[in-house]
Amino acid sequence: MIPLRSSFLLPALFACVLSLSIGRAEFWIDDPKEARRVAEEEERPLMIFFSGSDWCALCRSLEEGLFADPEVRKFVSEHYVPVHLDFPRKKKLPMAVKRKREQVQRTYKVGQFPTILFVDPKTGKELFRHQHVKLEPQDYIHKVLENILLLEQETESAPTSPTP
Q1: 28-155 has which fold?
Q2: pTM above threshold 0.85
Q3: How far is Cα of residue 164 from the mean position of the Cα atoms in its chain?
Q4: How confident is the model over 89-133, as pLDDT tens digits?
């Protein structure tokens, strides 16, 4: 057996930790305007996560549990543009960032945290929302898929207007 030397382990461990933290940051877009541009370009709906990172325990639980789960992240990344709008109470945000986030919060009348909205980027129309979500990763994916199917059924059964 070949002994592992600490000179190899420490850099490898650092690289793993760094890749995890970079991956987490790259998952979310925190600028609403940029997220909408990406969503329109890639033709995917927005998934907007409204959280209070330094005061909302359930928000932290979602961030560290549900949204850290590789299957959930893969599912969300393939079907949506994930947007994270954090509303901390202790940490001071730059005023421009705070105003942008508050505008989105007012637009969609978000008053409870956590709230997860699914939005059509072209029209800005809310497709559906989840509030106070406390589900296991597989249950969450199932819940989202269930909402998508309901939305598609509503769209198919909606009367179409005659073309002139």
Answers
A1: Glutaredoxin (3.40.30)
A2: no
A3: 40
A4: 999 999 999 999 999 999 999 999 999 999 999 999 999 888 876
